[in-house]
Amino acid sequence: MIRQLIKSSTFAVLIASPVLFANAAWAQIELPDDPVERGLAIAMEGENRDQGFGDSSAEMRMILRNTQGEESVRELRQRTLENQDPDDGDLSMIIFDRPRDVEGTALLTHAHLLDDDDQWLFLPALARERRISSSNKSGPFLGSEFAFEDFSSTEVGKYSYNWLRDEPCPAPDEGLTCHVTERIPLYENSGYTRQIVWTDTVDYLPRTLEFYNRRNDLLKTLTFVDYRQYLDQFWRAHELNMVNHLTGKSTSLTWSSFEFQTGLDEGDFNIASLRRAR
Fold this sequence. Notes:
By secondary structure, this protein is mainly β. Helix content is 7%, strand content 41%. It has a single domain (35-275), classed as Lipoprotein localisation LolA/LolB/LppX (outer membrane lipoprotein receptor (LolB), chain A, Clam), CATH 2.50.20. The chain is built from two helices and 13 strands. Strands 6-5-4-3-2-1-13-12-11-10-9-8-7 form a 13-stranded antiparallel beta sheet. The longest helix has 14 residues, at 35-48. The two termini are 24 Å apart.
């Protein structure tokens, strides 16, 4: 995801985590009437407003909660490099610093449009990296409620779109109006048949995202909270909350210390840099 966790975040998520955009000076666009064209236009507007950030880094905490409400906390760092090629995706890396049992674990992602994303996981206990196969990217990321694919950037070309309606945004953003859009992954081996996105109608920021599994059950809901603007243009959510409706578990990502245009380049996002990430 998200560019949605890394940039929102993705990360991507993760990511997305890692699509968080906008400047107050942006003019509101005229949207097409056709639902398919309208859904695509909404997604493109959000992506266009975040162009030009260059690179970014941030610190975050991952809080895992089980069904009894017990928590475990992990501390991480995240780096993102914007890909200047419009036909390809961004580069990102997530590095675990604490606790000791995951210290030095790192995930490197080279996002693509319809081709499989390239992902490698470095495991310090084994002193080597392993490539994440496309068939495993729907699996949970290190025990969290985020999947590996959630930590990839959500390029517009990865999905087809269909605008459903406009309505008040879900809590905690009830004071805003949202475009509600269905998007369907076009890339192979996704764990999701479809996603429903609530995007506010002013800044085109994602506010809530629902994930439906291969049986078309509502699997997870992700909410984006505490948006802040950087460099007078780029919005980032400082809290992402993912709830798994089938297990009752949840994972929160809280972000801090965002920095932009720090001089990162492609050399900071290769296998060698993954091995020395700690």
